[in-house]
């Protein structure tokens, strides 16, 4: 039996053949648990000599822990608001253990903004750090500094291999791109043209996650015998005419459907632009996007988008902060890589997905 100090809730759940949530409710005596499942958990706790007063000892220690969160600014209903909601929920649950978090926000399209957030972070002292990995090179540089100071850090959004991060919580971006390609090819066929729509923003940086998704997408096309043409279209929502002209030209040269993908959560910005096209053109475009934010979900339910891929940003943030808390409070080392489910959403199932809340 492994050292009981390293036993995690997920380990107990696996041994008892119940969910981690059931174990949590038994340990903290809250919520409803069936007698059968409670007996299973208590049997495992007895077998591993689990100390039920561990929480009491942590509370009695009065030691506080401060975590920094380096993540993007957001607008209401956006991807990073959802991730922050998960972080805030986990922080609230850990508050009784004197755990607190402080945000250092940056513009996700501006490397200089990330540098400023890191500089502000360095002016204070923290026990652990949660880092959104949009700018890979700069995150690696920060990670090396944290390694030297022996400050544990966790990545969310996209993994960076071969680093000494404590853990990663997020999607498998390469697999997400692969799935997107498979779904889109199923809609339009192996000979159809496909366009990547890059929604214009002030800065030209593309996130690590977007790059990796595109790699997964292209890898699937190469292996599947794809014979169509790939187009990259820069979309300026404030000046759509050029983009409309390009799309109509692509459609004119293709007798059947064409596919379109946006690699981040902003596919909703493409919809008003397509509305300016003639209906026969618009109806020949099949779209796939990412993230179940409200504006994307609305477009999906209207049939404007065929598929959305979602990686549960709330759960990423929640699990990451909980992992940092458990690491310091209970000496539980999290699994190195923790991939979120890649949820495939269509208009017929998205309401059920939205009913799921942390």
Distance between the termini: 32 Å
Summed up, the domain count is 3
- In percent, how helical is the residue content? 40-55%
CATH topology of the largest domain: Rossmann fold
Number of helices: 15
Characterize the main sheet.
Answer: 6 strands, parallel
Contiguous uncertain segments of 5+ residues: none
Order of helices and strands: HHHHEHEHEHEEHEHEHEHHEHEHEEH
Instruction: Give Rg in angstroms.
Output: 23 Å
Oligomer: single chain
What's the architecture of the largest domain in CATH terms?
Answer: 3-Layer(aba) Sandwich
With strands numbered from the N-terminus, the spatial order across the biggest sheet is 2-1-3-4-5-11
Total strand segments:
12
Task: Report the CATH C-level class of the largest domain.
Answer: Alpha Beta
SS class: alpha/beta
**CATH homologous superfamily label of the largest domain:** Response regulator
Outline: globular
Q: Classify the beta-strand content into a percent band.
A: 15-25%
Global mean pLDDT: 89
